[in-house]
Amino acid sequence: MLEIGDTFSRNLGLENDAKSAVFDLDGETFRRDLRIRHERKSTDDNAFTIVKTNNHLNLYHYLKKSQPKSIVEVGYFEGGSSVFIDKLYKPNSLTCIDNRKTRVPQVDEYIGRNHRQDEMRVLHDFDQGDVEKLRSITSEFHPEGIDIVFDDASHLYDLTKATMSVLFPKLNPGGYYVLEDYGWVHSNGFQSADHPWSNLSGISTLVHELIAVLARGSNIISNIYIEADVCVIQKGYTNVSDPFEPTAHLVSRGKPLPIL
Length: 260
Description:
This protein has 260 residues and is of the alpha/beta class.
């Protein structure tokens, strides 16, 4: 079981109720902005925008104990989280993908200024459901496997599951697969029938599927850690083939789990 506290976020000067705050990490300035999407500031020459709660940041800091060297980030928004990950872990290989059409020039400048071209790559206009492209980049840039996957992208069932079908088998034994903001379908703000996402399926069903895999005791998954805004799946030591389909590894007396 993971044991994380709030020391790291406090050290960064972030209060629990602070929607916006600026902090520094290893010479770089970050702007934590938790407001709704259209109100958030973009990354600029003054700070990298990062959309992470205290729970997220404390978890990221806790996972530093595992000394990850190979990391994939799915969904980077304004690129602040990508720079944060690079500064926090200093991995040998970091691949960050997002479906945004345009690059973030400040992130490209960071990579050049810190001579991280060989270790860090940021791929834009990338569909997280493109499993063949995912296989290609992970084979090229992570041939020895992946230590951590951070998925903060679509938060939709089909796309998130497609990504996991490729990346989970490439996760090294004991590695971590992090699903952020997995429970939006259960939040009050998404309950209206006229909400733009009312007909979309969230990933809490995927979390239930993974819990069922863990419950079976096959050691495909060794542990799952859950808080309100993050789910962490630790991979076990049983070999998993690509594509990974959780429902193929669980038994539920013939009763399907509903996709919410």
